Amino acid sequence: MSCSNCSSGGGSPRGCKNNGNCSSGGCNKLEVYDWLANMSLPGNQAPYDIVEVRFKNSRKNFFRNSKGLSLQAGDVVAVEETSGHDLGVVSIVGELARIQVKKKEAGFKPLEARKIYRIASQEDIDKWIKARSLEADLMQRSRTMAIKLELEMKISDVEYQADLTKATFYYTAEGRVDFRQLIKNMAEDFKVRIEMRQIGSRQEASRLGGIGSCGRELCCSTWLTDFRSVSTSAARYQQLSLNPQKMAGQCGKLKCCLNYELDMYIDAMKSFPKADTKLRTDKGSAYHIKTDVFKRQMWYAYEGDSSSGLIPLAPERVREIVEMNIAGNKPKELADFVVAVITKESDYSNLDGQESLSRFENSFKKKKNNKGKSNNNPNANNNPNAKPNPNAKPNNNPNAKPNPNAKQNNNPNANINPNAKPNPNANPKPNPHPSRNINPNQVKGDNTQPIKEVKVEGDTNGENKVVAKSNNKKRRNNNNRPKPVNPVNNENNA
């Protein structure tokens, strides 16, 4: 979505350089969504006259619309200050402002609120923009003065008033700082009224903003307004390692998100026995190492025995051992109280083959499509168990030359296609011996058998004879020739 305050009309932002993906809904910190904007007020009820106005960064304040101006969220207004006037942007109006007043300002008195003068004119806005352009140079010069005076303070932000009469300096320090001489030097050099405000580290991060370790904008600069104290006990309850580099935020303090799930952890830990109780067994005493709240397991280790490793126990088992110790009994060892968790290895081991080193080999191999293509490899058909391909087309070329390096095929049914049709355009050669029958056990082109039996019909004596004929000579490969016509079934030769 595009920002409502900086949209150029076509849905694309022009100034925030965030490509219309502001996580807070706009370019400003602590943006508020008015979910009561489309609700009309009951009859004879006047709109709420208190309006929330936002200034630079996350500074907000409530002002009273005493003149009854028609204000909407996003309007730039001139408001009353202790000296002069300042400019801000209206963030909340109407009934939502009433809810925010009750929530944020417990002792706020609407009658004592400062007034809204008018809607800002173009001259006021131009002067306001000029004041913003002077803040960066003013902050650098003030830091240089503080270093020369050897003051233990850090000036983090400067905010100019819109009428250029006052400058507010926000700084952080560990203790009290005597900056009287610093104020005199800055007043002589900058020619404006100087105001110093000390803020904490969390407020500094809220004003400046940034990206947290989770990859999102800081909670304090987007929606968090109340900063509760965070202690290391919150990390201990959640079984987190006390590493200051991981637990500290950009402000240098403990992360505020450590308090988000603390109450749930405290409720869950009530069902666990105390971790400071040692378990006494015949093998030795065991002390607590860590607790897994999600798996409901407590890990123990024997004192002075590192070979046994960590032993996981359920909280019910730990209570059982503690009751035995109170009664004066000791179990043999903790391993007898371990409850085995039955899981399928196929569910958790080698997910999607991610542990296999050769899992990508098959995906990069090229699959050759041999459909409709002839195979010129002489060793391709040496499989004796090969089945005929019903979709294969016969080669009816009568001029095909035999391959002298071709190897024999011992499968008699390897090249016989039962669905093959003769080519009518083929010109087969006549059979020189029409009176001979074809041996069904003989394979064409088979030169391995030294003796061949041929049955001859129609001899001069009227008897059928079997003649043994040598087959040592290499015969022509007839695999590519058409099948000869059987003279017995041919009507023309009958």
Uncertain residue segments: 4-15, 342-346, 434-438, 440-474, 487-494
CATH architecture call of the domain at 129-206: 2-Layer Sandwich
The whole-number mean of residue pLDDT values reads 74
What is the tally of helical segments? 12
Radius of gyration: 47 Å
CATH domain fold name of the domain at 129-206: GMP Synthetase, Chain A, domain 3
| The top level CATH class name of the domain at 129-206 | Alpha Beta
Helix content estimate: 10-25%
Please report which band the strand proportion falls in: under 5%, 5-15%, 15-25%, 25-35%, 35-45% or over 45%.
15-25%
The best one-word shape is elongated
Strand order of the largest sheet: 1-2-5-3-4
Spatial separation of the terminal alpha carbons = 92 Å
Say how many strands there are. Answer: 14
Largest sheet, in brief, is: 5 strands, mixed, barrel
Element-by-element helix/strand order = EEEEHEHHEEHEHHHHHEEEEHHHEE
- Alpha-beta content class: alpha+beta
Write up what this structure looks like:
This protein is an alpha+beta fold and 494 residues long. Helix content is 20%, strand content 16%. The chain has twelve helices and 14 strands. Strand 9 (279-280) and strand 10 (285-292) form a beta hairpin. Helix 3 crosses helix 4 (180-190). The longest helix has 14 residues, at 135-148.
